[in-house]
Amino acid sequence: MSRKPVAAQAGERSRVELTFDRPQSLSALFGQYDRNLVALENRLGVYITARGNRVGLEGTAEQVALARDVLNDLYARIQRGEEVDSGLVDASIAMAAEPTLDGIISAEKTGGAPPIMIRTRKKTIVPRTPAQAHYMRELVHNDMIFALGPAGTGKTYLAVAQAVAQLITGSVQRLILSRPAVEAGERLGFLPGDMKEKVDPYLRPLYDALYDCLPAEQVERRIASGEIEIAPIAFMRGRTLADAFVILDEAQNTTPAQMKMFLTRFGQNSRMVICGDPNQTDLPGGVAASGLADATMRLNGVEGIAMVRFSAADVVRHPIVGRIVEAYEGRDA
């Protein structure tokens, strides 16, 4: 791709023309009925024209520069086989506006592989927000990571993807996924079936993440062989989890005693990720009774333990989810 700048200084009107060398990629770049271009116009305040393989951008110098970087980023992602959707457009806008991510954006614009990625059997995952980029670095470099923030920020999904990648390469021998089986206000009563069938509804989000990273037959085979274990936190008591990648999801619903028990299961050549939203707990005593809040207070600053914090700005689900989180955080502040 090449570009021809026509003007400018910050605050003045500027026009830039981009030329794409693969016209067959433009339908994916523009989106159905040009919805990706419309989203850029609405979010960044630029005016976009498209003729053939040329795209014109007009607005202030800052707006045009951001729109140019986003289109370059999305185009590079398409060349790597990624699917561009509205969530990715929003994420790319957020990343382009983040100065600490200049290196990542620049690497992706040139068509090279991004420096931060997770490869699984089904897909290659790259960060969609600055916080995700930081989190993915910590998943590689630290043995214990607390991922803290609202739903939809990719905390559990990225942890599962990293765990699958390490299981595939053989750097760990087992993948252990756990959640506390706490009712969230719904009275589920007596559930039919054996123990697995009783607890599976609580663990469904973990299965969903696994199936997104591994073919279904591999997931089933690895669960049957014991390479992948999905169980409530109560099943961890009395064990030492060595040579394993261990993930605790919905950690805000653990008690301090459960959290201490879980953290002390840590074994040789293992990695442990604790995911949760400190501001949302289903425990009767509220946040004050949460083992996650207690652990982050006690362990903050301890060597070898990383704390990664997400906010509503990092939500990568439908954009309305981010606005909902912001509304609730504002009310609870």
TrEMBL record:
Main location: cytoplasm
Keywords: ATP-binding, Cytoplasm, Nucleotide-binding
Signal sequence interval, chain numbering: none
Keyword Cytoplasm in annotation: yes
MF-aspect GO terms: ATP binding
Gene3D superfamilies: P-loop containing nucleotide triphosphate hydrolases
Pfam families: PhoH (PF02562)
Protein name: PhoH-like protein
Lineage, opening ranks: Bacteria, Pseudomonadati, Pseudomonadota, Alphaproteobacteria, Sphingomonadales
